[in-house]
Write a structure and sequence with these properties.
binds pyridoxal-5'-phosphate, about 425 residues, disordered N terminus
Length: about 425
């Protein structure tokens, strides 16, 4: 019923501002096929033209509930008024100067992130891969500056994803992403996910950096145990290595706290951030404790666009709204409710499944290979989420969703499941 209502709900306000462009999709498909790189393969046959909160509308005027949030990016939902106003205001003032000069929103953003991280310094870039790339460079340079020129190794986890630039790709523990791009930078080791003894063996006096997410997002929402996270900190300390916790996906409030690692009694040396930081405007950052940050001496690293006016202004507005409007608490509360509803649903279906994650970073691993089919059917029924392989459903909705949105999503999921089962 709700689904049907949504299908028909071409509400006056949305229809008024968004033309129905039934030929747009066909045109985009043709242009993309003929002129764009095909690295995304044949894309899903939808083109979204408008977003508001947790809703999006496609070129045919159909409404969707966005439970992918961009892809863990749109933490405040689409078109958040404070972020939109900050972007519009900044665009009307000045968009770019070189990092030779002081950039007001960048400096204020650094101060805000410093306040939120207990005094870390910030450096800015444009994406998660660049943030991790910088973390790798910082760790090597930190060792080098201390005369430890042999300390160059980076240890990460199998199944991890840290990005696609060559250094971040070498850090990524999934050979399928590395195939054909060699030679990759040297000095990277991957240990099995969650294996404390393997980590202990891999980390030596040659290790510059250990890096992991507390919940591995891209490979299907795999939470590390608190025991592993605390042991990793100890192993780094025992061997003089730095610890970076990649919060590109799980950070920015998604788990119910701004930093996902805050659920554990651990203090990282560096925190790469990106995705949700500016609610959709490209930005990345590395936060590092003072001594580590100072390893990047003047001239040793930089970027043209990193921390530019627009992205920094959008990020500042995002952080203020996240805090002032209480969306992190909402993520924790609605995330718990969503997990309960998902557990009830798989129980009702009588299939074996594991529901996991924290806050609004949720994975459901099914014992049957129907994840992609369910994702496609749900899209047709107006719900957007992601399938990891054939068995895992991944939900990364905006942190502003309500329990009512979850009820609606569950209704679409159940309907879609019944349809694919037939
Ligand atoms: N690190 C993690 C944990 C990620 O999930 C991702 C992207 O999914 C990245 C790094 C790379 O970020 P980007 O795609 O912005 O380069």
């Amino acid at each position: 019923m709700v689904v049907l209502k949504n299908y028909l709900r071409l509400s006056a306000s949305i229809c008024g501002s968004t033309k129905i462009m039934s030929h747009l999709l066909t045109e985009l498909q043709q242009l993309d096929h003929e002129h764009a790189f095909q690295n995304y393969g044949t894309r899903l046959p939808y083109a979204f033209v408008k977003g508001e909160g947790a809703r999006m509308w496609d070129s045919n005027g159909r409404e969707y509930l966005d439970f992918l949030g961009g892809i863990a990016v749109v933490v405040l939902g689409h078109n958040h008024p404070k972020v939109t106003a900050a972007i519009a205001h900044q665009a009307s003032q000045i968009l770019h100067t070189s990092n030779f000069f002081y950039i007001e929103p960048q400096v204020r953003l650094a101060a805000k992130l410093s306040e939120m991280s207990g005094g870390m310094r910030a450096i800015f870039c444009n994406s998660g891969a660049e943030a991790n790339e910088a973390a790798i460079k910082i760790a090597r340079r930190y060792a080098y500056d201390r005369g430890e020129t042999q300390r160059v190794e980076i240890v990460t986890l199998e199944k991890s994803f840290h990005g696609r630039t060559l250094g971040a790709l070498a850090a990524t523990g999934q050979p399928k992403y590395q195939e054909g791009f060699g030679p990759l930078p040297l000095g990277f080791k991957h240990v099995p996910f969650g294996d404390i003894e393997a980590l202990r063996e891999a980390v030596t006096d040659k290790t510059a950096l250990v890096m992991f997410e507390t919940i591995l997002g891209e490979s299907g929402v795999l939470p590390l145990s608190g025991e592993f996270i605390l042991a990793a900190r100890q192993i780094c300390d025992d061997n003089g290595a730095l610890l970076a916790i990649d919060e590109v996906q799980c950070g920015c409030g998604r788990t119910g706290k701004f930093f996902a690692h805050s659920y554990f009694d651990v203090v990282p040396d560096m925190i790469p951030l990106a995705k949700g930081l500016a609610n959709g405007v490209p930005i990345g950052a590395v936060l590092a404790r003072e001594e580590v940050a100072l390893a990047l001496t003047p001239g040793s690293h930089g970027t043209t666009f990193g921390g530019n006016f627009l992205a920094s202004a959008a990020a500042l507005a995002t952080l203020h709204a996240l805090e002032e409007e209480g969306w992190m608490d909402n993520a924790a509360r609605v995330g718990d409710y969503f997990q309960k509803r998902l557990c009830g649903w798989v129980e009702e279906l009588g299939i074996e499944a594991q529901v996991r994650g924290r806050g609004l970073m949720i994975g459901v691993e099914l014992s049957v290979p129907l994840a992609r089919k369910l994702m496609l059917q749900s899209l047709q029924n107006g719900l957007v989420f992601n399938a990891v392989g054939d068995t895992i459903l991944r939900f990364l909705p905006p942190l502003i969703i309500s329990t009512g949105d979850v009820d609606e999503a569950m209704e679409i999921l159940s309907k879609s499941w019944n349809e694919i089962e037939k």
